[in-house]
Amino acid sequence: MTDVIPLSELRNQIDVIDQQILQLINQRASLAEEVARTKIASGEESCFYRPDREALVLRRIKELNPGPLSNDTAARFFRELMSACLALEKPLQVAFLGPEGTFTQQAAFKHFGHAVCTVPVTTIEEIFQAVESRDCQFGVVPIENSTEGVVTPTLDRFVASPVQICGEVAIRIEHNLMANATDLSQITEVLSHRQSLAQCRQWLDKHLPGVPCTEVNSNAEAAKIAAAKQGIAAIAGEIAAEIYHVPILVHGIEDQSDNTTRFVIIGQLASASTAEDKTSLLISTKNHAGALYGILEPFAKYGISMTKIESRPSRQGLWDYLFFIDIDGHQTDKDITSALEELSSRVTMIKILGSYPKAIL
């Protein structure tokens, strides 16, 4: 029979390990400060954050992880550690679709960690403007939802914007009904963003029939209003309930349990290849027979996997369209370079929106 280790001894061992971890964390932080000084001395002070470098570190952590912690748990721990160390070098300003407590802010924290300074703005347009003017180094914008499709204001804004996509992050969307009430019978109105109302329509029709549903600018705004008014319910995420202190009456009221929103990180830097990347493209072509085939054929020829294609009116002429395309790989990969060279003679415009590491967490 295996001897049972006394609890006091186990706690002493944990205390010793905690002290060692703390020393190593601060040793890493000191090296981060040295990195900042080296970058400033070499004129790289604008490039403290490197999405490619951080992706490689997190992937390495997953590969080295022996358990019993899961790979994702280990990666999230190091995500926060890198975020705190980066803040010692130069805190990042990240624009998101506000107010505080939105899924966009949640996406910012998931990608950058909680040591960044998140800056709320009111529209997707303002996120792009904040990055273009360098008021913020980065922005987080929603680009597609698994049930509602693409976010057209984001796609439209990429047409003229000089910003680059330098990362992506996916957020599992869990909608919760929250209110200062004890049961559903006290709810007189439900507030939320239009997409959230649409994603919870079946639940609302079944459990709150006849209760008016009103659209507001964001789920967080709905939670803020619900916190101040009796009988007003909001549909929002847990982060909004925590920030605005609104009790959650019912968890997970979305009609589809796998509802996920993909966000992209926009900035003014290019990400180097990490061997596990995506490239986003904007392509315009004249309206003629075989035009779409002419776009797709070079990718098939060079064995390049296409993960998304969307069309949008170009607004330059009747029935002219722009195609937004995601492909696997980095724009510097040989096959992608060859495909884009061949494609350039078939279309009127190719704009590389960015090559960036695939989402890790």
How would you explain this protein's 3D organization?
- This protein has 361 residues and is of the alpha/beta class.
- The protein has 4 domains: 7-89, Chorismate Mutase Domain, subunit A (Up-down Bundle), CATH 1.20.59.10; 93-173 and 260-267, D-Maltodextrin-Binding Protein, domain 2 (3-Layer(aba) Sandwich), CATH 3.40.190; 176-250, 3-Layer(aba) Sandwich (D-Maltodextrin-Binding Protein, domain 2), CATH 3.40.190; 277-357, Alpha-Beta Plaits.
- It is 40% helix and 25% strand.
- The strands form 3 sheets. Strands 1, 2, 3, 4, 5 and 11 form a 6-stranded mixed beta sheet that branches.
- The chain is globular.
- It starts with 6 loop residues before the first helix and ends with a strand.
Chain-wise SSE layout:
Elements (H helix, E strand, L loop, with lengths): L6 H35 L9 H14 L6 H19 L3 E5 L5 H10 L4 E5 L2 H9 L5 E8 L3 E2 L1 H7 L5 E9 L3 E3 L10 E4 L1 H6 L1 H7 L5 E3 L3 H10 L3 E5 L1 H7 L3 E3 L9 E8 L9 E9 L5 H11 L4 E8 L7 E8 L5 H11 L4 E9 L4
Parallel strand pairs: 1-2, 1-3, 7-8, 7-9
Antiparallel strand pairs: 3-4, 3-11, 5-11, 6-9, 6-10, 12-14, 12-15, 13-14
Helix pairs in contact: 1-3, 2-3, 11-12
Catalytic activity: prephenate + H(+) = 3-phenylpyruvate + CO2 + H2O; chorismate = prephenate
EC number: 4.2.1.51, 5.4.99.5
Pfam families: ACT (PF01842), CM_2 (PF01817), PDT (PF00800)
